[in-house]
Amino acid sequence: MTGFPPWHTASERGPRERNADAVSAYAAAGAPGITFALADGVGDDPAAGLAARTAATAAARTPVADGPAAAILNGQRALQKVGGTGDAVMVVAMPFEGGYRIAWVGDSRAYGWDGHMIRKLTEDHTMAEYFRRRRQPYTPRMEHVVTTSVRTTRPDEIGTTEVIGGGLLLTSDGVHKVLPPSTIDAILADPSRGAAALVAAAIELGGRDNATALFVEPPAADPAVIATEPFRTAA
């Protein structure tokens, strides 16, 4: 794989006291591909922000050949080395020929983008999703109670998937739990917008959390984007 498609990221603190989200991307010199990581610290304190930054940085430094699940575990080892109790949820994406391999813990998400619509690729690791899949009652609060995290996950609990073709969107819950899919579709369909517009819309629509998005454009050869214009890089 040679070259990387354009990608853009944006993050806003929102009404929280601090921004405990973090994004990291790294491409080792001479190595194929680039690793993307988006982490969301658990809580609204300095330990949460440190955990997100530490996990995202360690995950992004994982060689593409090792795979995204290994990146999650590298984030875990980095948190253990730092010590303390700070924790985060995270989603990691690595390209392979024709698509992306993805791993996650918690409720950070990955979506595929075909130039028209997003498609959710990950399944939230939350109490609400656990009971929903079993057709059992749950409360709104359970949407925010995660069942896996970077610090606590076992290897067999890490979610994994892959997607072929198109672009890729990674989000913290401050974006996807505020914006309906139709709104995300409309924003990404406009070439002059992207990650920054998603984050701004989430805050404007009353989001109460940090909001972070990372958008990787579809490859130039993808038929879905032949007639589009380049996205402007988010500030």
Q: What's the SSE blueprint?
A:
Blueprint: E1 7-12, E2 21-26, E3 35-41, H1 46-60, H2 68-82, E4 88-96, E5 99-105, E6 109-113, E7 118-120, H3 127-133, E8 159-164, E9 167-171, H4 173-176, H5 181-189, H6 195-204, E10 211-216
Antiparallel strand pairs: 1-10, 2-3, 3-4, 4-5, 5-8, 6-7, 6-9, 9-10
Domain PPM-type phosphatase: 6-218
Organism: Amycolatopsis panacis
Biased composition (Basic and acidic residues): 10-20
Give your account of this protein's structure.
This is Serine/threonine protein phosphatase. Residues 6-218 form the PPM-type phosphatase domain. It comes from Amycolatopsis panacis. The chain is an alpha+beta fold and 235 residues long. It has one domain: 4-Layer Sandwich (Phosphatase 2c, domain 1). The protein contains six helices and ten strands, in the order E-E-E-H-H-E-E-E-E-H-E-E-H-H-H-E. A five-stranded antiparallel β-sheet has the order 1-10-9-6-7. A five-stranded antiparallel β-sheet has the order 2-3-4-5-8. A hairpin with a 2-residue loop joins strand 4 (88-96) and strand 5. Helix 1 (46-60) packs across helix 2 (68-82). The two termini are 27 Å apart. Mean pLDDT is 91; it is low at 222-235.
Uncertain stretches: 222-235
The number of helical runs is 6
Number of distinct beta strands? 10
Predict the CATH topology: Phosphatase 2c, domain 1
Portion in helices: 25-40%
CATH superfamily: PPM-type phosphatase domain
What is the name of the CATH architecture? 4-Layer Sandwich
* Oligomerization status of the protein chains: single chain
Order of helices and strands: EEEHHEEEEHEEHHHE
Q: Calculate the mean pLDDT score and round it.
A: 91
Strand order of the largest sheet: 1-10-9-6-7
Strand-pairing-aware structural class = alpha+beta
User: N- to C-terminal separation?
Assistant: 27 Å
Shape verdict: globular
Beta fraction: 25-35%
Q: Major β-sheet, in short?
A: 5 strands, antiparallel
How many structural domains can be distinguished in the coordinates? 1
Region (Disordered): 1-21
Biased composition (Basic and acidic residues): 10-20
InterPro entries: PPM-type-like_dom_sf, PPM-type_phosphatase-like_dom
Domain PPM-type phosphatase: 6-218
